[in-house]
Design a protein that fits this description.
The structure is a homodimer of 246-residue chains. Chain A has 246 residues and is of the alpha+beta class. Chain A has helices at residues 2-5, 20-30, 50-56, 65-68, 80-88, 98-121, 136-143, 186-198, 200-208, 214-222, 225-241; strands spanning 42-47, 71-78, 125-129, 149-158, 176-178. Chain A contains eleven helices and five strands. Chains A and B meet through α2, β1, α5, α6 and β3 of A and α2, β1, α5, α6 and β3 of B. β5 of chain A pairs parallel with β1 (42-47) of chain B.
């Protein structure tokens, strides 16, 4: 399983298709992931056509992977199929509420990660697009997602055409807590972030953005409070629109 | 990777410890999963002591795996560590809102699934406890989770002491959509759920619960509307309590 330890996100893909046979095999295996009450509360929309990729690209802030990858997968939290089944079977579903969204989103994200692992094990490269939950309203319209379906993750997939540097990770003891959560002191934070802050690429990042600290690049440039508040409103509105707010 | 295709959830474990060395190795590898902006918005609380397992058990509706497993892991969405780092670096964090919770929960769930795969690859068995998001308030108190930390998944881990039947899954074409989501007709639902409904264990399940259809076992017994509404209120209240509602 060393490929997991050595994995990198891949953003450039070869001009080589990913066959339906392989893709379906990987997805079918991915669906063996744990799922609440074996309800399988997810759907996957497969995008291969250039036209649909061009429509999806703006929702992902035009990151080039969307148009550049042979396959784009949108993993959705889905209580629509299950609720339809209930109604056709004289049962009244009660899944139009926040906990049901979180249950379905959990199911969908477990399957997403399982798919990524399987794809990489088969020599494919993937990129996880976090933008899916920033513009869910646009994606819903483009992919025609009905009520009780909400996109939660997008993965671009293809054969790697690059071998980027592996990104850093925080030291293990900065993430684990034994028995209870012990909150971080200033000394802990200094220690946990020391390696990250000393990386040449991160020092360059601070300089390029005209900031004093790496954290300021995150708070003032990349993930700003005002943007988060705006996207939170979109999220709230979209969950209402998709019927998950009762 | 056939172990993924052949996996089963394991609820009974041998009386054999999982060493810290192995556990840490698996967690460290799991943390190679994709993470938004490389922020690693998660923490993991490791429970080994009988005392803490006994405290956690009721929050998981006393499912026997909590006390029976050598290790219980609680994966948390965590914007506390990152926000502390920002504050100690003259940066003002803006992550006390719903989109930030969903970003951190996504990060945490990807890591959860990655850990499960790695654990199973090393001969361990796992059980995913969906109960974590039903009683997050209790878990927060027991594990002393500060603001901006929210439990999203619990995994019990140990060496398997059972070999249960593999559970069924829906046919692939019931989950995939090509280019756009095509909503399900009654005929689609009949076809997709036919195999599941014909399973002897599911027919027995209907009978034991005195119901007419399998769907009614879900809506009237296992995942009831009233329970979902109650748990949605707990979820809303807990997200406010943990500071994710601005």
């Amino acid at each position: 399983m060393d490929f997991i330890k050595n994995r990198r996100t891949i953003r450039k893909y070869k001009q080589k298709d990913v066959s339906s046979e392989l893709l379906n095999e990987l997805l079918e295996e991915a669906f063996r992931a744990s799922t609440m009450g074996n309800m399988q509360l997810y759907s996957v929309v497969v995008t291969r056509s250039s036209e649909m990729k061009a429509k999806l690209a703006p929702a992902h802030f035009n990151q080039p992977m969307v148009k550049g990858a042979p396959v784009v997968l949108t993993f959705c939290a889905d209580f629509n199929r299950f609720s339809k089944w209930c109604r056709f079977r004289q049962a009244e579903p009660g899944y139009d509420n926040p906990i049901s969204f979180l249950n379905a989103a959990s199911d969908a994200l477990l399957v997403t990660q399982n798919f990524c692992t399987l794809a990489e094990a088969h020599g494919l490269g993937i990129c996880y697009l976090g933008t899916t939950i920033y513009n869910p309203d646009q994606i819903i319209e483009i992919l025609r997602l009905p009520k009780l379906v909400m996109p939660v993750a997008t993965i671009t997939v293809g054969y790697p055409d690059e071998m980027p540097m592996q990104t850093d990770r925080l030291p293990l003891d900065g993430i684990l807590h034994e028995e209870v959560y012990v909150d971080y002191t200033e000394q802990d934070i200094d220690r946990i972030y020391a390696a990250k802050e000393s990386l040449p690429e991160n020092r360059k990042f601070i300089e390029e953005n005209g900031k004093e600290t790496l954290a300021q690049v995150f708070t003032d440039v990349r993930y700003k409070k005002a943007d988060n508040e705006y996207m939170s409103e979109v999220l709230r509105r979209t969950l209402r629109l998709q019927g998950f707010d009762n």
